Every structure is written in structure tokens, then in C-alpha cells.
């Protein structure tokens, strides 16, 4: 699953490929991908729209078009591919024909990804799905007070709470494992038991890790590979998919917490009760 740094890489890549291109025609092969309007309207509205710029909010790509915003969430396996010919593969679900004769394809093996289209006079940050997002993990406004209010109400394991996009957005599974390791917090510790110092560590390391991962182009592990661009953050991982703790050499534990693989050192990350 691409996380925030990987989506940032995709965004930069897309800007270099299709910025200022005009969409002459769109074909939706799998209508369920289009989330908020019917696919025929989507095909009609997008005709002759220019791609002004591609932005990102948390894990959403935001294509700014002449009259619309197109929001795209890649979920598990979604990716964009630029082709020169229109030979479509089995998993090519939305096809954007560009005036330059290039073809931009949204490909998604699992079909979990979603595409939304909004008129430009709407403040897209104030409507679903973007309005549901909490502050981004590397946002300078992320404060102890903000997280304390959110954590106070939760008796769930902190690992699960860090993945809740309505609290902190853009911190995916790999990065949450890494943040908890550097903060010396056990993933099972209930969110409401964390003190200010621990919350401060979460903020510090979330920012540090995401900024570094963005700089390195993300993390490439199996299906995390995006658009054939290799991220390099996997070389900076401390605990995710590791055998031994880099601090104390104890065996790293792997558990599934709320179905997500959680790697931690039970010696360096003591549970708080
Ligand atoms: Zn350790």
C-alpha cells in the first residue's frame, strides 16, 4: 500500500509526465472506481480539461483541472501508467487520452482505489473525503494539545490510533511501526495512557521519519513499488521487517494488531499499564 511519501513521489512523477497536458477523452472501464458521480458524467465533464497541476493531501492525489478537481486515492495497488499506445491491460480501469497522443492509465489490480470529481467552486478540503482527514503527520501544526485531546478519548492500542486517518493523516503502517520504535512506545499501550513526553516523541519522530522518507522517495518493499521508481527509505528502517533490535539486539516481535503487521522490541518498547 503506498503511504504518504510514496504518494508524494507519484505526485512529483505525474507532474513531470502530464502537467499542462489536455485530456481529449476519458474511458471508464470499471465504473465502481468513480466514487461520487456516475461514470458517464465523469467521462463528459473531463473532456477538454487541462491538467494544471497535481497536488497531494495525505494519501490523496489532487489533479487540478481547468474547471474541476479530480481526487484519486490509490488504496492498495492503484497506479498511474503513461503509455504511447492504447493496448489496454486487464487491470487498466480508467483511460485518459491526452491531446499529445499519450495515454494516462489508472491501473488497479485490487480495484480498491477511488476517483472523485468536484466542481472547482467547492472548497474540496471542507467536503468528504478530505474533510475527514486529521492533521498530516509532518504538519507543523501537529501539537501535543491536538493529539492529547484525540488520544484522551481512546482506549485502543496506540498503533491502531496512529493509523486512524481522522486523527493523524498520512502515517501508514510501516511508518507507524518506525515512529513507535524510535519513541520507545509499545504498540499495545492504550492511547489514553500516553503522557506529554511520549506524545511529543510521536510528533517529533513522525515528522522526522516522513520528511526523510519523502526525501528518499518512499519505501520499496514488494508491492510498495510505485511506478517502477524505487524508494530508498527501506535502508533506513529500524524495526519494520527486521529480525533483531538495532538498540539491544533482542528478537523483534511481529504481531497483527487490528490486522496490521506490527514490529516492535518488547525490551525497548515496554508496555505501559
Ligand atoms: Zn530493543
How helix-rich are the residues, as a percent range?
10-25%
The end-to-end span amounts to 32 Å
Give the total of domains.
2
CATH class of the largest domain: Mainly Alpha
Q: Name the poorly predicted regions.
A: 222-226
What is the fold-level CATH name, i.e. the topology of the largest domain?
Answer: Helicase, Ruva Protein, domain 3
**Attached small molecules:** zinc ion
Strand count, sense and closure of the main sheet? 8 strands, antiparallel
Number of strands: 12
Q: Determine the structural class based on helices, strands and strand pairing.
A: alpha+beta
Give structural notes:
The protein has helices spanning 4-18, 39-46, 144-152, 158-162, 173-182, 196-215, and strands at 22-28, 49-57, 60-65, 68-73, 79-83, 92-98, 103-107, 114-119, 135-136, 168-169, 253-257, 260-264. The chain has two domains: 4-132, MutM-like, N-terminal (N-terminal domain of MutM-like DNA repair proteins), CATH 3.20.190.10; 135-264, Helicase, Ruva Protein, domain 3, CATH 1.10.8. Mean pLDDT is 93; it is low at 222-226. It has six helices and twelve strands. It is elongated and about 60 Å long. It is an alpha+beta fold and 273 residues long.
